[in-house]
Amino acid sequence: MARRSIKVSPDVRRRAARIKLLLMDVDGTLTDGHVWLLSQPDGTALELKSFNAQDGQGLTLAATAGLRTGVITGRESAAMRRRAKESRIEFVYEGCAQKIPAYEDMLKKTGLNEGEVAYVGDDLPDLPVMRRVGLAIAVANAVPEVIGAAHWVTPRRAGDGAVRDVVELLLKSQGKWESFISQARA
């Protein structure tokens, strides 16, 4: 079954055309929000996360097209670090109870202005960054406050290709999609 086309307003396309840095939350944005903890005989717990292959392909394609990417997350996770490396995510900020310091550090490191940054989130800790970026995006299953703060809401849910939808929006709005899809690699 073919995916339906993504509906985007002219204002969102204009904003998306300016984006040079795509930032994201992790749990509930790059994942479906579940954090599986598997009890071990020694009393420790093994953390499991599920990532979507289409999101990974989209992020790799974004990097190939010259779009910089980063994550800001409250948790620390070896699985997330591995996924970030595989997906060519340039900036990884973990253990961030407040996301603004990491966001401001990335602005400083990249020399970009806020209008050149997009942020994808799903829950209340994402709001401070979303209120400052040029393009605020909520995943389809985000909390109402995040959806209300977003310029655009993805057609798909978190962990089900929502980030891929964002990458497609950005690259199409920048006129790069067609020239870079032939460079996609497994």
Number of strands: 8
Q: CA-to-CA gap between the ends?
A: 22 Å
How would you write the strand order of the largest sheet? 5-4-1-6-7-8
Structural class: alpha/beta
What general form does the structure show? globular
What share of residues is helical? 25-40%
Gyration radius, to the nearest Å?
Answer: 16 Å
The CATH architecture assignment turns out to be: 3-Layer(aba) Sandwich
Mean pLDDT: 93
Low-confidence stretches: none
Number of helices: 8
Beta strand %: 15-25%
CATH class (first level) name: Alpha Beta
Give a brief outline of the structure.
The chain is of the alpha/beta class and 186 residues long. The chain is built from eight helices and eight strands. The longest helix is centred in the N-terminal third of the chain and has 12 residues.
Topology (SSEs and partners):
Blueprint: H1 10-17, E1 21-24, E2 36-39, E3 45-48, H2 53-64, E4 68-72, H3 78-86, E5 91-93, H4 100-110, E6 117-121, H5 127-130, E7 135-138, H6 144-149, E8 152-153, H7 162-173, H8 177-181
Describe the structure.
There is one protein chain. This protein is of the alpha/beta class. It has a single domain, classed as HAD superfamily/HAD-like (Rossmann fold, 3-Layer(aba) Sandwich). 36% of the residues lie in helices and 17% in strands. It is built from 8 helices and 8 strands; from the N terminus they run αβββαβαβαβαβαβαα. It has a 6-stranded parallel sheet with strand order 5-4-1-6-7-8, with helices on both faces. The chain has a two-stranded antiparallel ribbon with strand order 2-3. The chain is globular. The mean pLDDT is 93.
